[in-house]
Amino acid sequence: MIDNYSWRTPLKNLVLFLLPWVIIGYLTDHFLLSMVIALTWLVGWHYYHQWQLFVWLWRTRSLTPPVANGAWATIFDGIYKQQKANRKRRRQLGDLIKRFREGAQALPDATIVFDHENTIIWSNKLAHQLLGIKNSDVGQRLNNLIRNPNFEQYQKKGDFKEPIIITSPLNPQSLLEIRIIPYAEQMLFIARDVTKLKQLENMRQDFVANVSHELRTPLTVMLGYLEMMEEPEHTPPAMIKKAIDEMSQQTVRMRDLVEQLLVLSKIESGGEEVFKQTVNVASMLSVVQSETSSLNAVKGHQISFDIDNDLIVYGSETELRSAMSNLIFNAIHYTPDGGTIAVSWKRTKEGALFSVSDNGEGISQKHLARITERFYRVDKARSRKTGGSGLGLSIVKHVLARHYSGLKVSSQVGKGSTFSFTLPNNMIPEKDQKAS
Ligand code: ADP
């Protein structure tokens, strides 16, 4: 219909419409009147359809056009088709935007879109959680909500090649890495929580520094003695003996440190499967007991072992032995000579309880929270003298975490400490559970 519509079509329609009126005008001898009636009719017809068009477009807003014929049918049909196509396109665009927004919502980072005036256009849910930016903040200026001098400086500079790290506006303990990506007329702001990452990085740096420090001291001592022994003829024999003793002590210290580091790294990288084998803790502790007697020879503590011989648990024997002996050896080291130490391994309602109590020097509150950190020592000089590396309790903590348990410490300065942990009931094999 549209294809064969040309400028001739309305002209032909007009001629066809006027022709009968011209004939009637001639026949009745009222040509002018006949024309006036015909043209009035024509104008009225057009106005009527124009009105229908207005009502359709602005009042009813329905998709179906009004019924019409002639040229108006073509016009209505054309508008109808265009509207239909527009609606389809709008729906497709709407779907696309919806999918894009859903994708942006699912991003693991806080995302904000803002313009060159710094006005927020859109933000996702994580931006609400990490930065406290709400949906109602659309239209607000970004730096009114993220008040941070470093961020302001970063924006002013306008060099967004590298990200910036700032403290979270919601939590001063959290660190956020922020990237700004300019695109089209807008900017994309992406923030992610890097607190854990930074902590890990700091831990790694501290760790390397600590290990180097721990190894440097004995190495310096040994180097000093070796230099001295370069001229043995000038060194008195007593001095040589002292040097050898000291060097072998330092070598043992370094060997112990390396061994503990290896244990720690083995545990951290997964270690043995915990539920694969059972551990006869009583017989394991009897070996530890004989080791303690040689260690206790100088100290002369009274050490009692109260052990449930039938209490067997799932776990890694090497790891549990390392944890238990660390706690016992610490009690021996940090209790003044002639102290009392009680080791116990028994069944409780919660599971299998291991505890070591001593009447030693105790640990003050401010140190308690940190003693399981790597290389943390209450008194560095003293701990080194006892051969401590500050890794023992860190190993205990990791071993226990792998055995679904945690270290409990109660301590009073000057009175003593109790270090204990409970392996939960599911770490005790079924038959032993019934037996108890
Ligand atoms: P270290 O190798 O120095 O003994 P640990 O990690 O085993 O390292 O212990 C950390 C610190 O905790 C020790 O330096 C010591 O100050 C304190 N500590 C551990 N056990 C005891 C205890 N039974 N009594 C008092 N202080 C203790």
UniProtKB/TrEMBL annotation:
Record keywords, A-Z: ATP-binding, Cell membrane, Kinase, Membrane, Nucleotide-binding, Phosphate transport, Phosphoprotein, Transferase, Transmembrane, Transmembrane helix, Transport, Two-component regulatory system
Chain ranges passing through the membrane: 14-43
GO BP terms in the entry: cellular response to phosphate starvation; phosphate ion transport
InterPro entries per record: BphY/WalK/GraS-like, HATPase_C_sf, HATPase_dom, His_kinase_dom, HisK_dim/P_dom, HisK_dim/P_sf, PAS-like_dom_sf, PhoR_N
Stored Pfam families: HATPase_c, HisKA, PhoR
Phosphoprotein among keywords: yes
Subcellular location as annotated: Cell membrane
Enzyme Commission number(s) of this protein: 2.7.13.3
PROSITE patterns: HIS_KIN (PS50109)
Top-level taxonomic group: Bacteria
GO molecular function, one term: ATP binding
Histidine kinase domain segment(s): 210-427
Catalytic reaction equation(s): ATP + protein L-histidine = ADP + protein N-phospho-L-histidine
Matching SMART domains: HATPase_c, HisKA
GO cellular component: plasma membrane
CDD domains, per the entry: HisKA (cd00082)
Protein task: Member of the two-component regulatory system PhoR/PhoB involved in the phosphate regulon genes expression. PhoR may function as a membrane-associated protein kinase that phosphorylates PhoB in response to environmental signals.
NCBIfam families per UniProt: phoR_proteo (TIGR02966), PRK11006.1 (NF008235)
Full protein name: Phosphate regulon sensor protein PhoR
